[in-house]
Amino acid sequence: MTAPRIRVVLVDDHAVVRRGLRAFAETEPDLEIVGEAEDGEAAVALLRERATLGEPLPDVVLMDLLMPRMDGVAATAAIAAAHPEVKVVVLTSFGEVERVHAALAAGAAGYLLKDAEPEEVAAAIRAAAAGEVHLDAGVARELTRRMTAPHTGMGSLTPREREVLALVAQGHGNREIARRLVISERTARTHVSNVLAKLQLTSRTQAALYAIREGVITPPTQPL
Questions:
Q1: Is the sign of the CA dihedral 110, 9, 86, 124 positive or negative?
Q2: How does pLDDT run across 76-134, given as a tens digit for each residue?
Q3: Nearest CA to 191 among 170, 205, 177?
Q4: How far apart are CA 60 and CA 125, in angstroms?
């Protein structure tokens, strides 16, 4: 008896990438492309519609990370919450290692580099469908290196801490930061302390200069 084919949905904002993945998958007798989406929001809507209509959900979603409207990390989290039986394998470039870590935390079952060979793409899909995890070796090494490196620098800041750094650099005090971010002043003060500690800075002035140097904010224009 022939084993059931693995149902796959392709999610990428570049149509040419989706066409290439589809063309490859159609040469594999055990893979079946059952849908495509141009971004994370469309992917979540596609799965919701299939579930509502009683159609079989995909076994695996191949998910790009950088997309408009809803990126791959947010879409992975939404799919994992609504359809935990659906496995997500993210497609990434080597420069998106931070997003890979976030995608895994959101529930992704593995990741591939976009320049992976077709055989590796098929292997990742089959591994995910079988409940296994497929990790690109190069990205895995970089993730491990970052996880064991000292937690300093911009890469150590959470998204909220980056917001706080920008507001500090713009000259806002804790009360104004709390108002803008709709948090308590005590929480704002804690965030500022954490930012300074992670960046190994001792003052708000140093934080402002650091933010300008790193491109978090643009320096104020000097009057003529």
A1: negative
A2: 999 999 999 999 999 887 556 667 777 888 888 888 888 888 888 899 999 999 988 88
A3: 177
A4: 7
CATH fold for the domain made of 6-147: Rossmann fold (3.40.50)
147 CB contacts (<8 Å, ≥6 apart)?
Answer: 101
* C-alpha–C-alpha distance, residues 112 and 100, integer Å: 10
Rg from Cα positions in the chain: 21
The chain-wide mean pLDDT, for the chain, equals: 86
Report the amino acid identity of residue 195: V
All CATH 1.10.10.10 domain ranges of the chain, comma separated, are 154-213
Q: What is the DSSP letter of 189?
A: H
Supply the CATH classification number for the domain 154-213.
1.10.10.10
pLDDT tens-digit series, residues 21-52: 999 888 999 999 999 999 999 999 999 999 99
Token readout for 64 is 């790009």
- What is the model's pLDDT at position 50? 95
The pair of structure tokens assigned to 60 is 């695996």
Those residues whose C-beta lies under 8 Å from the C-beta of residue 141, and which sit 6 or more positions away, are none
The conformation of residue 68, written as its DSSP 8-state character, comes to S
Q: Is 0.90 topped by the overall pTM?
A: no
- Determine the residue type at 184: S
